[in-house]
Amino acid sequence: MKCPNCGAEMQDNRLYCEKCGEDIHIVPDFEPELERNMEQSLERISEEVAQDGKGNSAGGEKKTPAPPDGEKRSRRKAMAGWIGIAVLVVILTVTGVGIFRYFSPDYQTRRARQTAEQGKYDRAVRYYTRAMELDSFNIDLKLELAEVYFLKNDKVNYEYWLREIVADPNTNGEQLESAYGKLIAIYRAREEYQAISDMLLTCQNESIRTAYRNYLAEPPQFSVAGGEYDEVQALKLTVTGKGTIYYTLDGTRPDERSSKYTAPILLEDGNYLVRAVYVNENGVVSKIAEADYQITVEELEAPEINVDDGDYDTPVYITVTNDIEGVYYTTDGTTPTMDSAHYTEPVPMPLGVSHFKFARLEIGRSSEIVERRFVLELDTDVTPETAVDTVRNNALDTGKITDSSGHFDDTEAHYQYQYLCVVNFSEIGDSSIDSTDRSGIYYLVAEVLVDAQGFAGRTGNYYAINAYQGSCFKLQTQDGIYTLVGI
Question: Which CATH architecture has domain 221-295?
Fold first, then answer.
């Protein structure tokens, strides 16, 4: 095809000349039936003119005398005029039909689909292009044109028109889903996952974003807004899809060598510039999310303990004398945490060497740690092991168990006896036990039942063995009052 303006060769599917820039107005091909009708009309007019010029000589009838030469010329001129008029009418009719069709979106669309079905893709492109000029809001035409480029194996224009559909505000939800699905298939085949994520980040359709959320790499969301706080903050980082969050607390750029987010980040007293990125399962990295925090936390009150460090020959109860809420302690010198023993009532001093540490704790907060070191030694030959043996022997003597391992029937279930602590009942206000000097000091032993499956639990039976005399009692408590019952 040549440009009518400059004569340069043009590609068939171009609507303008690449050399001179002139727009090319294409008038569609006439229908074959219309062309045949034009030819037949012209032939009929010619035949009628010829017959009129020869005169009527059929059937051997008498010929009409030939008119004078002047009359012949006049008649020929008249007939030529009628022929010209007829030809002009035909031309005007054909031209009018062509113009109508050129400006008819329905005709252009119908011809586009027909030529596409016939495999004439270049011609189909021209018809679709003209149809879209006439009906620019018709998204289905863009989808059909994109499909024609797909059939032509023209991947560049196929992708171009799909992106045009995605960007068009007139595209409805169903058309969007179709266009996004085709585009994601293109990029997935090329393993261009960053392009998928970038495209979905600009998508305003939530159902599409949800459907393809695993391809998204959105910045992490922070559960706590940046700002100033007077208490510890538990910062949660969340994302949509599968992948990993990496973060830093000092303002440095996070990457896959940074801390991996697995649990809420405790922002304790101090200043933090938290920065985080999300890396999805396809390796696409999100933009950085960040927030600045200033945490100023009031210090918790330290526990106050009733006894001092030292050596003891009589057990005492270690008591927190101020508010006990949130107090935790250890007896081996390790730092208390919220997984350590929770202080709820006075603690009996252990035999031997002990190193207590007490602290008041909240999430992300700790008071000053209070330490106490004790050495408790009793001047007696009765030991905790002796106390346990005494209880076990009593159970054998009464027939409660049948052997020293604590069995009582043919199953594997058995009783065990466990030393708990040494106590001075004289220090317990609610007690019916008369004690003077050292007679109120007892070892406490608990009875434990181990079932045939190996699960152990205390039975609720407790025994008190005098630490100096070795006598054994059953310890009972009712309404907070301890009582020793002889056995």
Answer: Sandwich (2.60)
